[in-house]
């Protein structure tokens, strides 16, 4: 099998770094509105019928959307094994909270309307709220911590060790900057959920969603601006020093890393990346305007652009870092030293090139079949088949 | 204290995997049964088959969602609790997991929504296609996860890379067409089909006993018994295939399942029952069937199957070779490209046994310090718990044969006795509903407990695979998962029972009208309905 040498190792690493971005963005764009809708549910739906309308706007699609999350895990495992090994064990309790919330969510969707009892239904509604709000918040907190560096080190055997006791490790995640990025993530996905409800629901539900969405949209814009300034002015950055080998073996300890005063240096070295935060601001601003004016399809698209811009900002600012280590900077994981082998990256790329277009095509087809608003009649008339 | 983290992590993994596997087999089989029923509907246009599709589809949905929910944990748990494992073999093991997402999860999850919500949005054939895509997606996911698992049992197509301190893939083809993976895949999906068939059979039998929904129940029994018979036969035949592949890939597991301490002259006998004694290294009161073990394990009368004691002796030699590999590895790591070629050669020669040197890390920091006593102790660690394996295996196989018997009987009554079923048989069918789950969980236990002390057979010991976590971390999540999953399981069972009691509730009127007309057409000249009721 020399076939895989058709693509050089460093090019494959770069492609897989882009694909990692595609997966995270794909997850935020699709499952993001499910989480936003979950977070909005108790506030935009007051009666049982209203809540069922809200739930049924995502009812047929949340399951497929959630696969972006699962695939994210699988793809990180396959393409970036050190990242998979270090991050999920390092964020252990936070991951547990995310998993618990995300396990609750499918069950809540499916079981909520299977009994008439008010207590039963209310409990599952709050489960849906938790299943949407908690992961949205924690993902943002995780990003905030990654930008500051995570306290881990690799032994010469590449076993990863962490600093701090178990509760200290978890509470350490909740620092001011990370809480801010957590709020930005939460507000951003809630706005996205509002844009979805504005398109898929009507009447009072859509109106409530729009008015909440305007507030969370403004929160997103402000929070994004503040955290951006904080990042560029205060948060210490990381930089590779010495000879940068881009196609060497995947051993993070082979490269040398230095702390820099702030992440601003990334924007000095690659000024063009400013386009990412600009897209984020533009998308979010237009989404807020769209929500105020009651535009439907375009608002959802602008909101997607905003999310695309925000996540790209994080990736491009940190490049080539994926998971910097605050405890032992040389252990930091970068694009050039924490991937799978040349052959595995190539095979996974071939598989992705075959299946990703298929997935996008049939997902689009399903959305097309389900096109149109969910109305009160849909919910009350088909109690047997809908949620 | 290190050991406790290992035990707790193992317990958590076993617990979450066994819970997950309560839902998966039914999903695998019921998706196909539902697709078969809908196919009959589309081909005949008879509304009762649509009602059956929707009814069993509802139960499928209640079960499916918990399979999905508990599956989320599985995808991330390797990284959370088995960090060193993830680093060490992620280059190979990660690929099938990612492909599973791309090829299978997206397919089943995207279309399962349309299965429930798309009845009046799609044409008949369109909806049928969606149902089949869900079934195919579910079954594909079993394929890829078993390719991943098969590699842990029989790690082919990979090599250790001293630069990256991990195993790396050398042949994707070998990983995919790993004989263990293929044998496991067909065995596992067949077990899923048996589970669903027994489930449909049992629930339908309950309806017949109650005299409710008889037309639907009769048809369901016919489908379940035919499909179940084929599956029950294949689960045993293909399980035997697994046994055959174990005889040359996982000889220790096979010997332990058999309680076979000494190498027996070929062809070896099969211990039908007995009392394995790990301390005395002997299986007491064994009742032997001559030749059978040799035939199952080697498909010959002349090849020998090594016993546990010989395999332990072999492990000692492999540990010694592993120490040589470890020594060379340390030099390579220090001197990198300046390493002398002789050292590289020594490493290449012995690198296949590197994992055996890691067995010593439980007792010391550097395997090179090992005394002959240490080596003997580490070699003895390669024996898994014999008695639990011996018994789990026998119960599983016994149940497997019982399912064949039940399915033959119901197939015969359904095909040649006017679908009349005596009440005792119906009661039996209800009583055995839990049995396939027991068999499936035991099958998981035999495969994974039998792999110990390794996570990847001969490559990476379990004790070395864990994350750097505190006891409190794992205790907290273990308690959390147990509590949380138990609540969900109780909720699921209550809904399942509620919807079984409720019976089919969709398209009721249309189906009843059709059914009355259909039975009228079938009436014989003496005015009798041609199907006997179980009360007669």
From TrEMBL, chain A:
Entry keyword set: Cell membrane, Electron transport, Heme, Iron, Membrane, Metal-binding, Transmembrane, Transmembrane helix, Transport
Q: Does the keyword Isomerase apply?
A: no
Quote the Pfam families the UniProt record gives: Cyt_bd_oxida_II
Q: How does it sit in the membrane?
A: Multi-pass membrane protein
Gene Ontology cellular-component terms for this entry are: cytochrome complex; plasma membrane
Which GO BP terms apply? aerobic electron transport chain
**Membrane-spanning residues:** 14-41, 53-77, 83-105, 126-147, 177-199, 211-233, 269-289, 301-323, 343-367
Give its localization. Cell membrane
Q: What is its main location?
A: membrane
Q: Which InterPro entries match?
A: Cyt-d_oxidase_su2
- Annotated Gene Ontology MF terms? electron transfer activity; metal ion binding; oxidoreductase activity, acting on diphenols and related substances as donors, oxygen as acceptor
What PANTHER family would the database entry show?
A: CYTOCHROME BD-I UBIQUINOL OXIDASE SUBUNIT 2, CYTOCHROME BD2 SUBUNIT II
Tell me the protein family, please: Belongs to the cytochrome ubiquinol oxidase subunit 2 family.
Q: What is this protein called?
A: Cytochrome d ubiquinol oxidase, subunit II
This protein's species is Roseibium aggregatum (strain ATCC 25650 / DSM 13394 / JCM 20685 / NBRC 16684 / NCIMB 2208 / IAM 12614 / B1) (Stappia aggregata)
From TrEMBL, chain B:
Q: What are the UniProt keywords, alphabetically?
A: Cell inner membrane, Cell membrane, Electron transport, Heme, Iron, Membrane, Metal-binding, Transmembrane, Transmembrane helix, Transport
Tell me the lineage of the source organism.
Bacteria, Pseudomonadati, Pseudomonadota, Alphaproteobacteria, Hyphomicrobiales
What GO biological process terms does the UniProt entry carry, in alphabetical order?
A: aerobic electron transport chain
Which InterPro entries does the entry link to? Cyt-d_ubiquinol_oxidase_su_1 (IPR002585)
Q: Where in the cell is it found?
A: Cell inner membrane
Membrane topology note: Multi-pass membrane protein
A GO molecular function term, named singly, is: electron transfer activity
**Segments crossing the lipid bilayer:** 20-43, 55-74, 94-118, 130-152, 190-209, 221-239, 391-412, 424-447, 474-497
> Mind telling me what this protein is named?
Cytochrome d oxidase
What does the similarity note say? Belongs to the cytochrome ubiquinol oxidase subunit 1 family.
Q: Which GO terms describe its cellular component?
A: cytochrome complex; plasma membrane
Q: Which organism is it from?
A: Roseibium aggregatum (strain ATCC 25650 / DSM 13394 / JCM 20685 / NBRC 16684 / NCIMB 2208 / IAM 12614 / B1) (Stappia aggregata)
